[in-house]
C-alpha cells in the first residue's frame, strides 16, 4: 500500500534528551505514573476533521495542506482518507480517533444517499479497526456546515430542519453502536442565537432539551451505551452559544433533568474563548461529577478566536492533568487532539510532528501533576488556607451550629481580624520548579 506519510516509521519513545524530531521525549505509553500507564491516563485520540479533512483554508485564502488523498474526490477520497488515517495512527501509535459524520463520507443528494455513503465508509473503518486494534473514542454529527442549518439544528425555528437533525443524530447513534464508540459528543455548532429581536430563547432551549431526551431514548432503545458528552463553547460560529461554558451547560442539564445522562467534553480553546482558563473549566466539571473527556488544543493570547493550535504550553497541560488525576482519570473519555497545524505547516510530516508535540506536552503534564499530587503541594497549601474552618467558629459553621446571631456576637468581640497572605507568587515559583525538575 502506498504511504501517505513518506514511509515514516513508527514513532518510538527515546527520552528527554533525544534530538530525533520523530521520537517521543516524554510519552512512553507503558510507563506507569500514579498507578496507571500513561496510555491509560491519556487515551489519545486523532481528530479526523483537522488531520484528515482540514485543508488549511482561511477567510483570506485557499487551502495549503499537501495531502496525498486530495488527488481523489468523492467516495474515492473518503476511502483514501481512511487508509491515511489508520497509517497516521499507526505511525503515532494513537489508540483512538474521533469524527463527525461529514468528515468521513460526502453528503449525497438525499438523506438516503448520504446514509449509504456513510455505510460504505463505516464498513471500511470497521475493517481497519479490527486489523489495527484502534478504537473510536467518539463520533458526532456535523449540524453546522450545511446551509440548511443556518438557523440552528436542535434550536432551529424550522421544524423540518429539526427533523433532519434528529435523523442525522439517529444515524450517528447507529454508527457509534456499529463501531463500538465509547462516547457520543454533542457540540452545538449553531445552537445559539444572533439577536433577541427575532429569537424565542426559552422555546429554543426547551426544544434542545427535547432533542437530547429523544437521543437518550433512542440510544437506550438500540443498546448504545456510550457516555453522552456536551462540548461547551461560548461563541463562534453563533454569537451567543447556548452551551457557553461548563457552569452554563451544567445548569441547563440540571434544569431539564439531563444531568445523569451527560458529562462534559472540555476543550481548552473554548475555555479561553469563554474568558476562563482550561483548568477552570475542568475544575467546574470535576467538582460537579461531570468531567468526561477533553479536546486538547490551545488558543493564542493575541487572537480572539478558536485557533485550535496543538497544545504545547506545559503550564496548561500540567494544570489540566492535575484536574484529570484528581478526577481519577477520564473514564471512557480521552485526550482528543482537536487541533490543526498552522496553514504554513502544510507538509504531511507536520501532522506527525504536531501530534508528537501535543502528546509529549500532555505526558509531561501528567508526570509533573502526579508529582505535585504525590507531594501534596497544592493540597497542603489549600488545607492550611481554610484551616480557620477546622476549629472554633469556623467549625461551628461547617457543623450547621452557627446562625446570624451567633456569628454577630462572635464578630462583635473578635477584634482585630487577622488575615494571612495567599502567597500566589511563591506557589507559582514552586510550580515552575516542579515543571523544570520532575
Ligand atoms: C468546534 C469543535 C468541534 C467539536 C466537535 O470548535 O470543537 O470540532 O469538537 O463537533
Ligand atoms: Co472540539
| N/C terminus separation | 43 Å
How large is the share of residues in beta strands? Answer: 5-15%
The average pLDDT score comes to: 98
Q: Which segments are poorly predicted (pLDDT under 50) over 5 or more consecutive residues?
A: none
User: Which compounds are bound in this model?
Assistant: D-xylulose, cobalt (II) ion
User: Helix coverage percent of residues?
Assistant: 40-55%
Derived from helix and strand composition plus strand pairing, the structural class reads alpha/beta
Describe it:
This protein is α/β, with parallel strands linked by helices and 438 residues long. The protein has 16 helices and 14 strands. Strands 5-6-7-8-10-12-13-14 form an 8-stranded parallel beta barrel, surrounded by 4 helices. A two-stranded parallel sheet has the order 1-2. Helix 5 (111-132) runs parallel beside helix 6, helix 6 (159-179) packs parallel to helix 7 and helix 11 (314-326) crosses helix 12 (348-374). Bound molecules: D-xylulose and cobalt (II) ion. The site of cobalt (II) ion has 5 residues, from loops.
Amino acid at each position: 500500500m502506498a504511504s501517505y506519510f513518506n514511509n515514516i516509521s513508527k514513532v518510538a519513545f527515546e527520552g528527554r534528551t533525544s534530538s530525533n524530531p520523530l521520537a517521543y521525549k516524554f510519552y512512553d505509553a507503558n510507563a506507569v505514573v500514579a498507578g496507571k500507564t500513561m496510555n491509560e491516563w491519556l487515551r489519545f485520540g486523532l481528530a479526523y476533521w483537522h488531520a484528515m479533512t482540514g485543508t488549511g483554508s482561511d477567510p483570506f485564502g485557499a487551502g495549503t495542506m499537501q495531502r496525498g488523498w486530495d488527488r481523489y474526490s468523492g467516495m474515492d477520497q473518503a476511502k483514501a482518507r481512511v487508509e491515511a488515517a489508520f497509517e497516521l495512527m499507526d505511525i503515532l501509535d494513537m489508540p483512538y480517533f474521533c469524527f463527525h459524520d461529514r468528515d468521513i463520507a460526502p453528503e449525497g443528494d438525499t438523506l438516503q444517499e448520504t446514509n449509504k455513503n456513510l455505510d460504505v465508509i463505516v464498513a471500511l473503518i470497521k475493517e481497519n479497526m479490527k486489523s489495527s486494534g484502534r478504537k473510536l473514542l467518539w463520533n458526532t454529527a456535523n449540524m453546522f456546515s450545511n446551509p440548511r442549518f443556518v438557523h440552528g439544528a436542535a434550536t432551529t425555528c424550522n421544524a423540518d430542519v429539526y427533523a433532519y437533525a434528529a435523523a442525522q443524530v439517529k444515524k450517528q447513534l447507529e454508527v457509534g453502536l456499529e463501531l463500538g464508540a465509547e462516547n457520543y459528543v454533542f457540540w452545538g455548532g449553531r445552537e445559539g442565537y444572533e439577536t433577541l429581536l427575532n429569537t424565542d430563547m426559552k422555546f429554543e432551549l426547551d426544544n434542545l432539551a427535547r432533542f437530547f431526551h429523544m437521543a437518550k431514548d433512542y440510544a437506550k432503545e438500540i443498546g448504545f451505551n456510550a457516555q453522552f458528552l456536551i462540548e461547551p463553547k461560548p461563541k463562534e460560529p453563533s454569537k451567543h452559544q447556548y452551551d457557553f461554558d461548563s457552569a452554563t451547560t451544567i445548569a441547563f442539564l440540571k434544569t431539564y433533568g439531563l444531568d445523569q445522562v451527560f458529562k462534559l467534553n472540555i476543550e481548552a480553546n473554548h475555555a479561553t474563548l469563554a474568558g476562563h482558563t482550561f483548568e477552570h473549566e475542568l475544575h467546574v466539571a470535576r467538582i460537579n461529577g461531570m468531567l468526561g473527556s477533553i479536546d486538547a488544543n490551545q488558543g493564542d493570547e493575541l487572537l480572539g478566536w478558536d485557533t485550535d493550535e496543538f497544545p504545547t504550553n506545559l503550564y496548561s497541560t500540567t494544570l489540566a492533568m492535575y484536574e484529570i488525576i484528581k478526577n481519577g482519570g477520564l473514564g471512557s473519555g480521552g485526550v482528543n487532539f482537536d487541533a490543526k497545524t498552522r496553514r504554513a505547516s502544510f507538509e504531511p510530516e507536520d501532522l506527525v510532528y504536531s501530534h508528537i508535540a501535543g502528546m509529549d506536552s500532555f505526558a509531561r503534564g501528567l508526570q509533573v501533576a502526579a508529582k505535585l499530587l504525590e507531594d501534596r503541594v497544592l493540597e497542603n497549601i489549600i488545607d492550611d488556607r481554610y484551616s480557620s474552618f477546622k476549629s472554633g467558629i469556623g467549625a461551628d459553621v461547617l457543623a450547621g451550629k452557627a446562625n446570624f446571631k451567633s456569628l454577630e456576637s462572635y464578630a462583635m468581640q473578635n477584634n482585630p481580624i487577622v488575615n494571612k497572605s495567599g502567597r500566589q507568587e511563591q506557589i507559582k515559583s514552586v510550580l515552575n520548579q516542579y515543571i523544570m525538575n520532575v
